[in-house]
Predict the 3D structure of the following.
Amino acid sequence: MRSFSYQRASDPQAALQALAATSAVNAPLTQSPTQPLAGGTTLIDLMKLDVMRPERLVDINPLAGNWAEINLDGGNLKLGALAHMSQVAGHAEVQQHYPVIADSLKLAASPQLRNMATLGGNVLQRTRCSYFRDVSYAECNKRNPGSGCAAMDGFNRMHAVLGTSDQCIATYPGDFAQALIALDADIEITGKAGPRTMRFAEFHKAPGDTPAIETVLAPGELISGFSVNGRWPRSVYLKVRDRQSYEFALASAAVALDLQDGVINDARLALGGVATIPWRVREAEGLLKGQKLDDGLAERAAAVAFADASGRQHNAFKIALGKRVVAHALKKAATMEI
Ligand SMILES: Cc1cc2nc3c(=O)[nH]c(=O)nc-3n(C[C@H](O)[C@H](O)[C@H](O)COP(=O)(O)OP(=O)(O)OC[C@H]3O[C@@H](n4cnc5c(N)ncnc54)[C@H](O)[C@@H]3O)c2cc1C
Ligand code: SF4
Protein backbone atom coordinates (compact mmCIF):
# COMPACT_ATOMS: atom_id res chain seq x y z
CA MET A 1 0.00 0.00 0.00
CA ARG A 2 1.30 3.45 -0.92
CA SER A 3 1.80 6.07 1.74
CA PHE A 4 -0.80 8.83 2.10
CA SER A 5 -1.54 11.74 4.39
CA TYR A 6 -4.55 11.68 6.72
CA GLN A 7 -6.64 14.60 7.91
CA ARG A 8 -9.64 14.42 10.22
CA ALA A 9 -12.30 17.03 9.40
CA SER A 10 -14.09 18.48 12.40
CA ASP A 11 -17.25 19.70 10.60
CA PRO A 12 -18.71 19.93 7.05
CA GLN A 13 -17.08 23.28 6.36
CA ALA A 14 -13.64 22.00 7.36
CA ALA A 15 -14.13 18.88 5.24
CA LEU A 16 -15.12 20.91 2.18
CA GLN A 17 -12.18 23.23 2.65
CA ALA A 18 -9.73 20.33 2.96
CA LEU A 19 -11.17 18.69 -0.15
CA ALA A 20 -11.28 21.92 -2.17
CA ALA A 21 -7.71 22.81 -1.27
CA THR A 22 -6.29 19.60 -2.64
CA SER A 23 -8.70 18.19 -5.23
CA ALA A 24 -7.80 18.25 -8.91
CA VAL A 25 -11.03 19.68 -10.30
CA ASN A 26 -10.45 18.38 -13.82
CA ALA A 27 -9.58 14.80 -12.85
CA PRO A 28 -12.37 12.20 -12.68
CA LEU A 29 -13.47 11.89 -9.06
CA THR A 30 -12.33 8.27 -8.99
CA GLN A 31 -8.76 9.40 -9.77
CA SER A 32 -8.71 12.49 -7.58
CA PRO A 33 -5.59 12.63 -5.35
CA THR A 34 -7.78 13.53 -2.37
CA GLN A 35 -10.61 11.24 -1.27
CA PRO A 36 -13.06 11.52 1.61
CA LEU A 37 -12.88 8.57 4.00
CA ALA A 38 -16.11 7.25 5.52
CA GLY A 39 -16.25 3.58 6.63
CA GLY A 40 -13.27 2.77 4.40
CA THR A 41 -14.65 -0.62 3.34
CA THR A 42 -14.36 0.23 -0.36
CA LEU A 43 -11.65 2.87 -0.32
CA ILE A 44 -9.06 1.14 1.89
CA ASP A 45 -9.74 -2.16 0.12
CA LEU A 46 -8.97 -0.59 -3.28
CA MET A 47 -5.92 1.24 -1.90
CA LYS A 48 -4.50 -2.06 -0.63
CA LEU A 49 -5.05 -3.53 -4.10
CA ASP A 50 -3.29 -0.45 -5.58
CA VAL A 51 -6.38 0.25 -7.73
CA MET A 52 -7.00 3.62 -6.05
CA ARG A 53 -3.95 5.70 -5.21
CA PRO A 54 -5.02 8.83 -3.33
CA GLU A 55 -2.29 10.91 -1.75
CA ARG A 56 -4.58 12.42 0.88
CA LEU A 57 -7.57 11.13 2.85
CA VAL A 58 -10.00 13.47 4.56
CA ASP A 59 -11.81 11.56 7.31
CA ILE A 60 -15.42 12.72 7.33
CA ASN A 61 -16.65 10.52 10.20
CA PRO A 62 -16.76 13.46 12.65
CA LEU A 63 -19.52 14.91 10.43
CA ALA A 64 -21.85 12.16 11.62
CA GLY A 65 -23.33 14.61 14.16
CA ASN A 66 -24.74 16.58 11.20
CA TRP A 67 -25.16 13.89 8.56
CA ALA A 68 -26.27 10.62 10.14
CA GLU A 69 -29.97 11.19 10.69
CA ILE A 70 -32.74 8.64 10.14
CA ASN A 71 -35.81 10.86 10.12
CA LEU A 72 -39.38 9.81 9.27
CA ASP A 73 -41.12 13.02 10.34
CA GLY A 74 -43.98 14.38 8.23
CA GLY A 75 -44.58 11.16 6.31
CA ASN A 76 -41.31 11.37 4.37
CA LEU A 77 -37.85 9.81 4.90
CA LYS A 78 -34.50 11.52 5.31
CA LEU A 79 -31.28 9.57 5.63
CA GLY A 80 -27.91 11.11 6.39
CA ALA A 81 -24.99 10.01 4.22
CA LEU A 82 -23.01 8.97 7.29
CA ALA A 83 -25.73 6.73 8.74
CA HIS A 84 -24.36 3.20 8.88
CA MET A 85 -25.97 0.48 6.79
CA SER A 86 -26.73 -1.60 9.90
CA GLN A 87 -28.47 1.32 11.67
CA VAL A 88 -30.83 1.88 8.74
CA ALA A 89 -31.41 -1.83 8.04
CA GLY A 90 -32.31 -2.40 11.70
CA HIS A 91 -34.54 0.67 12.11
CA ALA A 92 -38.07 -0.53 12.96
CA GLU A 93 -39.89 2.27 11.15
CA VAL A 94 -37.71 1.98 8.05
CA GLN A 95 -38.52 -1.75 8.00
CA GLN A 96 -42.23 -1.00 8.29
CA HIS A 97 -42.58 1.91 5.86
CA TYR A 98 -39.71 1.23 3.43
CA PRO A 99 -38.99 -2.53 3.46
CA VAL A 100 -37.21 -2.23 0.11
CA ILE A 101 -34.56 -0.04 1.77
CA ALA A 102 -34.18 -2.16 4.91
CA ASP A 103 -33.89 -5.38 2.86
CA SER A 104 -31.46 -3.97 0.29
CA LEU A 105 -29.12 -3.08 3.16
CA LYS A 106 -29.70 -6.22 5.20
CA LEU A 107 -28.94 -8.45 2.22
CA ALA A 108 -25.65 -6.65 1.48
CA ALA A 109 -22.13 -7.54 2.62
CA SER A 110 -21.69 -8.92 6.18
CA PRO A 111 -22.74 -7.67 9.66
CA GLN A 112 -19.21 -6.38 10.36
CA LEU A 113 -19.09 -4.47 7.07
CA ARG A 114 -22.59 -3.06 7.56
CA ASN A 115 -21.53 -1.73 10.96
CA MET A 116 -18.64 0.20 9.39
CA ALA A 117 -20.07 1.15 6.00
CA THR A 118 -22.07 4.32 5.41
CA LEU A 119 -24.88 5.07 2.98
CA GLY A 120 -22.85 7.71 1.10
CA GLY A 121 -19.93 5.33 0.65
CA ASN A 122 -22.32 2.59 -0.37
CA VAL A 123 -23.66 4.38 -3.44
CA LEU A 124 -20.07 5.21 -4.44
CA GLN A 125 -18.79 1.65 -4.19
CA ARG A 126 -16.97 0.50 -7.29
CA THR A 127 -17.37 -2.50 -9.55
CA ARG A 128 -16.23 -5.96 -8.50
CA CYS A 129 -14.95 -6.70 -12.06
CA SER A 130 -11.95 -8.90 -11.30
CA TYR A 131 -9.86 -7.29 -14.06
CA PHE A 132 -10.50 -3.87 -12.52
CA ARG A 133 -9.48 -5.09 -9.07
CA ASP A 134 -6.31 -6.86 -10.23
CA VAL A 135 -3.68 -4.38 -11.42
CA SER A 136 -1.64 -7.14 -13.05
CA TYR A 137 -4.16 -6.84 -15.92
CA ALA A 138 -3.07 -3.84 -17.99
CA GLU A 139 -6.33 -3.64 -19.98
CA CYS A 140 -9.02 -1.85 -18.02
CA ASN A 141 -10.55 1.35 -19.38
CA LYS A 142 -12.10 2.17 -16.03
CA ARG A 143 -8.83 1.95 -14.09
CA ASN A 144 -6.53 3.00 -16.88
CA PRO A 145 -8.46 4.99 -19.55
CA GLY A 146 -7.68 3.98 -23.12
CA SER A 147 -6.06 0.65 -22.21
CA GLY A 148 -8.84 -1.67 -23.42
CA CYS A 149 -11.14 -4.06 -21.61
CA ALA A 150 -9.92 -7.50 -20.52
CA ALA A 151 -13.45 -8.60 -19.61
CA MET A 152 -14.93 -8.36 -23.12
CA ASP A 153 -13.23 -11.55 -24.26
CA GLY A 154 -12.30 -12.77 -20.80
CA PHE A 155 -14.35 -14.39 -18.05
CA ASN A 156 -17.46 -12.21 -17.92
CA ARG A 157 -19.97 -14.25 -15.92
CA MET A 158 -20.58 -11.44 -13.38
CA HIS A 159 -20.73 -8.67 -15.97
CA ALA A 160 -23.58 -6.50 -17.19
CA VAL A 161 -26.18 -7.23 -19.86
CA LEU A 162 -27.71 -3.72 -19.80
CA GLY A 163 -26.13 -0.29 -20.18
CA THR A 164 -22.80 -1.55 -21.50
CA SER A 165 -20.55 0.25 -23.96
CA ASP A 166 -17.68 -0.89 -26.17
CA GLN A 167 -15.38 0.52 -23.45
CA CYS A 168 -16.71 -1.24 -20.34
CA ILE A 169 -19.20 -3.95 -19.35
CA ALA A 170 -18.68 -3.84 -15.58
CA THR A 171 -21.67 -4.34 -13.33
CA TYR A 172 -22.67 -1.80 -10.68
CA PRO A 173 -22.48 -4.08 -7.63
CA GLY A 174 -24.47 -2.34 -4.87
CA ASP A 175 -27.99 -3.07 -3.58
CA PHE A 176 -29.16 0.07 -1.75
CA ALA A 177 -29.06 2.23 -4.90
CA GLN A 178 -31.77 0.13 -6.55
CA ALA A 179 -34.04 0.71 -3.56
CA LEU A 180 -33.46 4.46 -3.79
CA ILE A 181 -34.31 4.44 -7.48
CA ALA A 182 -37.47 2.42 -6.96
CA LEU A 183 -38.59 5.02 -4.41
CA ASP A 184 -37.77 7.94 -6.73
CA ALA A 185 -35.39 9.25 -4.05
CA ASP A 186 -33.41 12.48 -4.15
CA ILE A 187 -29.75 12.80 -3.23
CA GLU A 188 -28.32 15.85 -1.49
CA ILE A 189 -24.84 16.93 -2.52
CA THR A 190 -22.93 19.56 -0.56
CA GLY A 191 -20.17 21.65 -2.10
CA LYS A 192 -18.58 25.04 -1.63
CA ALA A 193 -21.73 26.77 -2.88
CA GLY A 194 -23.91 24.90 -0.36
CA PRO A 195 -26.24 21.92 -0.74
CA ARG A 196 -28.03 20.98 -3.95
CA THR A 197 -30.57 18.23 -4.52
CA MET A 198 -31.11 16.07 -7.56
CA ARG A 199 -32.93 12.87 -8.54
CA PHE A 200 -30.87 9.93 -7.38
CA ALA A 201 -31.71 8.16 -10.67
CA GLU A 202 -29.52 10.76 -12.44
CA PHE A 203 -26.55 10.36 -10.09
CA HIS A 204 -24.74 7.41 -11.72
CA LYS A 205 -23.33 7.67 -15.24
CA ALA A 206 -23.30 4.78 -17.71
CA PRO A 207 -19.76 3.97 -18.93
CA GLY A 208 -20.09 5.26 -22.51
CA ASP A 209 -16.67 6.49 -23.66
CA THR A 210 -15.56 7.45 -20.14
CA PRO A 211 -15.91 4.49 -17.78
CA ALA A 212 -13.69 6.17 -15.14
CA ILE A 213 -16.44 8.76 -14.61
CA GLU A 214 -19.03 6.89 -12.56
CA THR A 215 -21.23 9.62 -11.08
CA VAL A 216 -22.00 13.31 -11.44
CA LEU A 217 -20.22 14.04 -8.14
CA ALA A 218 -17.28 16.41 -8.64
CA PRO A 219 -14.02 16.44 -6.70
CA GLY A 220 -14.50 18.58 -3.59
CA GLU A 221 -18.19 17.70 -3.22
CA LEU A 222 -19.72 15.45 -0.58
CA ILE A 223 -22.92 13.45 -0.44
CA SER A 224 -24.79 14.71 2.61
CA GLY A 225 -28.04 12.72 2.46
CA PHE A 226 -30.97 11.10 0.70
CA SER A 227 -34.72 11.72 0.88
CA VAL A 228 -37.87 9.89 -0.17
CA ASN A 229 -41.33 11.40 -0.49
CA GLY A 230 -44.21 9.49 1.09
CA ARG A 231 -44.39 6.01 2.58
CA TRP A 232 -43.82 2.86 0.53
CA PRO A 233 -44.83 -0.10 2.71
CA ARG A 234 -45.60 -2.23 -0.37
CA SER A 235 -42.03 -2.49 -1.53
CA VAL A 236 -39.65 -5.42 -1.99
CA TYR A 237 -35.99 -6.07 -2.64
CA LEU A 238 -35.26 -9.49 -4.11
CA LYS A 239 -31.64 -10.54 -4.58
CA VAL A 240 -30.39 -13.74 -6.21
CA ARG A 241 -26.74 -14.66 -5.75
CA ASP A 242 -24.40 -17.63 -5.85
CA ARG A 243 -24.74 -18.16 -2.08
CA GLN A 244 -27.37 -16.89 0.31
CA SER A 245 -25.16 -14.56 2.31
CA TYR A 246 -22.12 -12.32 1.93
CA GLU A 247 -22.30 -12.22 -1.86
CA PHE A 248 -23.05 -9.69 -4.58
CA ALA A 249 -26.17 -10.02 -6.74
CA LEU A 250 -26.29 -12.01 -9.93
CA ALA A 251 -29.67 -10.36 -10.47
CA SER A 252 -31.85 -8.29 -8.18
CA ALA A 253 -35.04 -6.25 -8.37
CA ALA A 254 -36.35 -3.41 -6.24
CA VAL A 255 -40.10 -2.96 -6.60
CA ALA A 256 -42.45 -0.38 -5.09
CA LEU A 257 -46.19 -0.59 -5.80
CA ASP A 258 -49.17 1.52 -4.90
CA LEU A 259 -52.29 -0.67 -5.20
CA GLN A 260 -55.86 0.56 -5.02
CA ASP A 261 -58.52 -2.18 -4.91
CA GLY A 262 -55.98 -4.52 -6.46
CA VAL A 263 -55.25 -2.17 -9.37
CA ILE A 264 -51.70 -0.81 -9.75
CA ASN A 265 -51.92 2.93 -9.31
CA ASP A 266 -48.15 3.46 -9.37
CA ALA A 267 -45.26 1.09 -10.02
CA ARG A 268 -41.49 1.53 -9.70
CA LEU A 269 -38.94 -1.03 -10.77
CA ALA A 270 -35.14 -0.99 -10.62
CA LEU A 271 -32.68 -3.76 -11.49
CA GLY A 272 -29.37 -4.67 -9.88
CA GLY A 273 -26.58 -7.12 -10.68
CA VAL A 274 -27.34 -6.96 -14.40
CA ALA A 275 -26.50 -3.40 -15.47
CA THR A 276 -23.58 -0.97 -15.45
CA ILE A 277 -25.52 1.46 -13.25
CA PRO A 278 -28.55 1.08 -10.96
CA TRP A 279 -31.15 0.50 -13.67
CA ARG A 280 -34.68 1.93 -13.69
CA VAL A 281 -37.11 0.38 -16.19
CA ARG A 282 -39.78 2.92 -16.93
CA GLU A 283 -41.26 1.02 -19.91
CA ALA A 284 -42.10 -1.91 -17.63
CA GLU A 285 -43.56 0.47 -15.05
CA GLY A 286 -45.81 1.99 -17.74
CA LEU A 287 -47.07 -1.47 -18.71
CA LEU A 288 -48.07 -2.21 -15.11
CA LYS A 289 -49.97 0.98 -14.32
CA GLY A 290 -53.77 0.68 -14.33
CA GLN A 291 -53.61 -3.14 -14.41
CA LYS A 292 -54.22 -5.96 -11.94
CA LEU A 293 -51.12 -8.08 -11.54
CA ASP A 294 -51.32 -11.71 -12.62
CA ASP A 295 -48.64 -14.16 -13.79
CA GLY A 296 -48.98 -13.08 -17.42
CA LEU A 297 -48.58 -9.36 -16.68
CA ALA A 298 -45.60 -9.99 -14.37
CA GLU A 299 -43.88 -11.98 -17.12
CA ARG A 300 -44.64 -9.38 -19.78
CA ALA A 301 -43.23 -6.62 -17.57
CA ALA A 302 -40.11 -8.72 -16.97
CA ALA A 303 -39.70 -9.27 -20.72
CA VAL A 304 -39.98 -5.53 -21.35
CA ALA A 305 -37.42 -4.83 -18.61
CA PHE A 306 -34.84 -6.95 -20.43
CA ALA A 307 -35.86 -6.09 -24.01
CA ASP A 308 -32.56 -4.27 -24.65
CA ALA A 309 -30.33 -6.76 -22.81
CA SER A 310 -27.40 -8.30 -24.58
CA GLY A 311 -25.35 -11.17 -23.15
CA ARG A 312 -21.77 -12.23 -23.78
CA GLN A 313 -20.07 -15.59 -23.59
CA HIS A 314 -20.54 -16.29 -19.87
CA ASN A 315 -23.26 -13.93 -18.67
CA ALA A 316 -26.19 -14.52 -21.04
CA PHE A 317 -27.87 -16.60 -18.30
CA LYS A 318 -28.49 -13.32 -16.44
CA ILE A 319 -31.21 -12.35 -18.92
CA ALA A 320 -33.42 -15.36 -18.16
CA LEU A 321 -32.54 -15.19 -14.46
CA GLY A 322 -33.23 -11.44 -14.27
CA LYS A 323 -36.67 -11.84 -15.86
CA ARG A 324 -37.61 -14.46 -13.26
CA VAL A 325 -36.38 -12.21 -10.46
CA VAL A 326 -38.48 -9.30 -11.76
CA ALA A 327 -41.64 -11.39 -12.14
CA HIS A 328 -41.19 -12.93 -8.70
CA ALA A 329 -40.50 -9.57 -7.03
CA LEU A 330 -43.59 -8.02 -8.62
CA LYS A 331 -45.79 -10.86 -7.39
CA LYS A 332 -44.24 -10.70 -3.93
CA ALA A 333 -44.89 -6.96 -3.70
CA ALA A 334 -48.47 -7.29 -4.96
CA THR A 335 -49.38 -9.98 -2.43
CA MET A 336 -47.46 -8.88 0.67
CA GLU A 337 -49.42 -8.10 3.85
CA ILE A 338 -49.15 -4.43 4.85
C1 LIG B 1 -16.37 -8.26 1.09
C2 LIG B 1 -17.38 -7.21 0.75
C3 LIG B 1 -18.66 -7.58 0.38
C4 LIG B 1 -19.60 -6.61 0.06
N1 LIG B 1 -20.86 -6.98 -0.33
C5 LIG B 1 -21.78 -6.03 -0.68
C6 LIG B 1 -23.08 -6.38 -1.12
O1 LIG B 1 -23.44 -7.55 -1.17
N2 LIG B 1 -23.92 -5.36 -1.47
C7 LIG B 1 -23.56 -4.04 -1.38
O2 LIG B 1 -24.36 -3.17 -1.69
N3 LIG B 1 -22.33 -3.70 -1.00
C8 LIG B 1 -21.44 -4.65 -0.65
N4 LIG B 1 -20.18 -4.29 -0.28
C9 LIG B 1 -19.78 -2.89 -0.41
C10 LIG B 1 -19.99 -2.10 0.86
O3 LIG B 1 -21.36 -1.99 1.11
C11 LIG B 1 -19.33 -0.76 0.62
O4 LIG B 1 -17.93 -0.97 0.65
C12 LIG B 1 -19.70 0.28 1.64
O5 LIG B 1 -21.06 0.54 1.65
C13 LIG B 1 -18.92 1.57 1.39
O6 LIG B 1 -19.19 2.48 2.42
P1 LIG B 1 -17.99 3.10 3.25
O7 LIG B 1 -18.60 4.06 4.20
O8 LIG B 1 -17.12 2.04 3.82
O9 LIG B 1 -17.26 3.87 2.08
P2 LIG B 1 -15.72 4.27 1.89
O10 LIG B 1 -14.94 3.07 1.55
O11 LIG B 1 -15.24 5.10 3.02
O12 LIG B 1 -15.86 5.22 0.62
C14 LIG B 1 -16.15 4.72 -0.65
C15 LIG B 1 -15.94 5.84 -1.66
O13 LIG B 1 -16.89 6.86 -1.46
C16 LIG B 1 -16.28 8.09 -1.09
N5 LIG B 1 -17.16 8.64 -0.05
C17 LIG B 1 -17.58 8.04 1.08
N6 LIG B 1 -18.51 8.77 1.70
C18 LIG B 1 -18.68 9.89 0.95
C19 LIG B 1 -19.53 11.04 1.04
N7 LIG B 1 -20.42 11.19 2.04
N8 LIG B 1 -19.45 11.98 0.07
C20 LIG B 1 -18.58 11.83 -0.97
N9 LIG B 1 -17.76 10.79 -1.10
C21 LIG B 1 -17.82 9.82 -0.16
C22 LIG B 1 -14.87 7.75 -0.64
O14 LIG B 1 -13.98 8.79 -0.92
C23 LIG B 1 -14.60 6.50 -1.49
O15 LIG B 1 -14.11 6.89 -2.76
C24 LIG B 1 -19.24 -5.24 0.10
C25 LIG B 1 -17.95 -4.86 0.50
C26 LIG B 1 -17.03 -5.83 0.82
C27 LIG B 1 -15.65 -5.40 1.23
S1 SF4 C 1 -15.44 -4.36 -17.75
FE1 SF4 C 1 -14.84 -2.24 -17.25
S2 SF4 C 1 -13.90 -2.49 -15.23
FE2 SF4 C 1 -13.88 -4.54 -16.16
S3 SF4 C 1 -11.96 -4.74 -17.32
FE3 SF4 C 1 -13.45 -3.91 -18.73
S4 SF4 C 1 -13.14 -1.69 -18.58
FE4 SF4 C 1 -12.24 -2.57 -16.74
Observations:
- DSSP finds 13 helices and twelve strands in the chain.
- The pocket of iron/sulfur cluster (ligand 2) is lined by residues 127, 129, 131-132, 140-142, 149-151, 168-170, 211 (CB under 6 Å).
- The chain has two domains: 5-61, 65-338.
